[in-house]
Amino acid sequence: MTVSRALGDHPNVTKETREAVQKRAQEVGYVRSAAARVMRGDGTNIVGLLLPNITNEFYAHFANSLANECDAVGQQLIIHLTDDDLNKENEAVNRLQQVQADTVIMVPCPTRGEVSATPVRNMRVIQLIRTRVVEGGCSAVLVDDASALSGAVAHLAGLGHRDIAYLGANLSMSSGRNRYDAYARGMEAAGLPLKDDHIHTGAPSFEMGVAAAREVLQHTNATAMICGGFEISNGALKMILSKGQATSDRISFVGYGDSPLNKWVNGGITTISIPVQDMANEAAKLLAGPPPNLTDGKGQHLLSAKLLIRNSTKRPSPAT
Fold first, then answer.
1. Does position 41 have pLDDT exceeding 60, yes or no?
2. pLDDT digits (tens, 9 = 90+) for 23-40
């Protein structure tokens, strides 16, 4: 009984006894059984994190921050990458259920009406960035970027821009719809028309940002561009910079996500800054809540984004 309590850091065991038992356990290679803990009714302290990828700066930063938060409270983080593929998401959730993970934090894959969502059972579910209906309910840690995106339109309109392009994620994603709607509301508030050739949405990626920015630069009279995604923003910025200083001077640019380089490129990139660390902290707080109860936990936890105005937005040149 004393050995069991010492290995479980029970407060009724003296520090000296606990350290002696744990030292001897380490010497003989003893490892506590997670399965036995579950049989006793204890949790596994395993947290699953499902991300589309970790090449996206936001996802990489969030994963690193969450890993540190989990370490601090004795939680084990397991990361699975889904590539926004529902089959991979299904497989990842199944693996987490096999190891009896307590919680899954997931960026849900986009789905169409004819595709059923991944069933998640016996785990606390926390959705990140996007939302999707989950049987039994869930919590969600989301970015409230509507005011920042609408504010970006108002800022550009105030400088004199009338043709403002938008590059964003698929409208099949809740985040894609919400960001596009914020842009559209901003345009309406500024009295500016929406033009089909100024709006590009698709699977969010660096390549999509490059291709969409190229289309805007070559085939429209847009004098400004707003991005609604990290990798989209990076790709679009690369395309603009590759065209030389004349193009950079002609197009006012509002990015998404505040990379450290944004402060220095061309005197500073105007961008929408996302509170990544705060989101990781919020998710960690939810981990410390009561055991999974799939009949509640439907609250949305919104953290506000900010529009950071720098030198990449300016008045349109007289030539345009």
1. no
2. 887 777 776 655 445 444
Whether the Cβ atoms of residue 249 and residue 232 lie closer than 8 Å to each other? no
The answer to whether the CB of 128 falls within 8 A of the CB of 303 is no
**Closest among 262, 256, 267, 272 to 311, alpha carbons compared:** 267
What is the spatial distance between Cα 235 and Cα 223, in angstroms, rounded to a whole number?
18
Give the amino acid at 143.
V
Strand 199-202 versus strand 164-169 pairing type: parallel
Count of alpha carbons within 13 Å of 193, Cβ hemisphere only?
3
pTM value?
0.84
What does the block give as tokens for 228? 């609604």
The rounded distance, in Å, linking the Cα atoms of 213 and 240 is 7
The C-alpha angle with vertex 287 and arms to 136 and 126, in degrees rounded to 5, equals: 40
The reported pLDDT for the residue numbered 40 is: 45
d(CA 299, CA 99): 27
User: What does the block give as tokens for 253?
Assistant: 């640019």
Residue position matching structure tokens 């939302």: 131
